[in-house]
Specification:
Order of helices and strands: EEEEEEEEEEEEH
Largest sheet: 6 strands, antiparallel
Oligomer: single chain
Distance between the termini: 84 Å
Radius of gyration: 26 Å
Strand order of the largest sheet: 1-12-11-8-3-4
Helix content: under 10%
Length: 194
């Protein structure tokens, strides 16, 4: 697939896995017609591995993480499931990393499509593909949209509440600095002749 292209899904249950030469965090977001989650429960990832019609499976570091969509179990209010990925290492970008998404029939394992986003650089998170409903039929679209502000940026864009990191405690006051020796007055300037 190429960015923006789509395919009809011939399987009711599809798995999207994302591979790369580095470990990735993969997740899925269930979106309504307005492009937002209904609540934080629609954000499916390693700490919340299942939601209505969507599950996350960890590859355990030896296989790719996957998001599986059971189109028959997705609520009617959900029009799209976006599959995202970000490098697991803090602060790492996609520079020099070419992730590949593989859309498979979840029951048979047959490959339905693959997609490798082109020319990534400073992005720290990526909407890789989306599985969406159009006129009652399910399709998959190659996206490849990157974010420089990580998975939190993607989640926030789609309406997930992201808890801020606690602010560092204020620095302890420093001990007072002893006054230095007084500076001798400078010599008066010579008058300037007019």
């Amino acid at each position: 697939m190429t960015p923006g292209s789509n395919i009809p899904l011939s399987a009711a249950r599809v798995a999207v896995d994302v591979t790369a030469p580095v470990r990735l965090d993969v997740s899925g977001l269930l979106l309504t017609a307005d492009g937002k989650v209904r609540s934080d429960d629609d954000f499916i990832f390693y700490n919340q591995p299942s939601g209505p019609g969507v599950t996350y499976t960890s590859g355990g570091g030896t296989a790719p993480d996957a998001v599986t969509v059971d189109t028959g179990a997705v609520p009617a209010a959900i029009e799209k499931i976006v599959v995202t990925a970000s490098p697991d290492a803090a602060g790492q970008t996609f520079q020099g990393i070419e992730p590949t998404a593989t859309v498979r029939d979840a029951d048979s394992g047959a490959v339905l499509a693959t997609f490798t986003p082109p020319q990534l650089g400073s992005e720290t998170a990526l909407v890789v593909v989306e599985v969406y409903r159009r006129n009652g039929a399910w399709k998959a679209r190659a996206v490849g949209q990157g974010y420089a502000n990580g998975l939190a940026g993607i989640a926030t864009d789609f309406g997930v509440s992201v808890e801020e990191e606690p602010q560092a405690a204020p620095a302890a006051p420093q001990a007072p600095v002893p006054p230095s020796a007084p500076t001798p007055p400078s010599a008066p300037s010579a008058p300037v002749a007019a």
